[in-house]
């Protein structure tokens, strides 16, 4: 996955919730384009709720993303 393609996908209107399918078989839900930040051309940050105690941030290498599922 490239940063350029992911930026393009997230900019589509209207935004549709999706999941990033990872090489290890897991999926990362994306409920809003505002929940993804681009660190550089190789990694992204995903912000998500961590229960009652705030937010968690995970850094993901773009090479670990196989596809976007809706």
Question: In words, what does this structure look like?
Answer:
There is one protein chain. The chain has a single domain, classed as SH3 type barrels. The strands form 2 sheets. It has a 3-stranded antiparallel β-sheet, with no helix packed on it. A 3-stranded antiparallel β-sheet has the order 3-4-5, with no helix packed on it. It contains 1 helix and 6 strands, in the order αββββββ. The chain starts with a helix and ends with a strand. The model has no long low-confidence stretch (mean pLDDT about 90). The chain has about 70 residues and is mainly beta.
Task: Give the topology, please.
Blueprint: H1 3-10, E1 18-22, E2 27-30, E3 36-38, E4 43-49, E5 55-61, E6 65-69
Antiparallel strand pairs: 1-2, 1-6, 3-4, 4-5
Short overview:
Helices cover 11% and strands 44% of the residues.
Computed structural class? mainly beta
Instruction: Give helix % range.
Output: 10-25%
CATH architecture tag: Roll
CATH class: Mainly Beta
What is the ordering of alpha helices and beta strands? HEEEEEE
CATH topology, by name, is SH3 type barrels
Tell me the radius of gyration: 12 Å
| Count of distinct structural domains | 1
Strand content: 35-45%
Q: What quaternary form is this?
A: single chain
By DSSP, the count of extended strands is 6
General form: globular
Number of helices: 1
**Overall mean pLDDT:** 90
Largest sheet: 3 strands, antiparallel
Lateral arrangement of strands in the main beta sheet: 2-1-6
- Low-confidence segments, given as residue ranges, are none
Spatial gap, N to C terminus = 16 Å
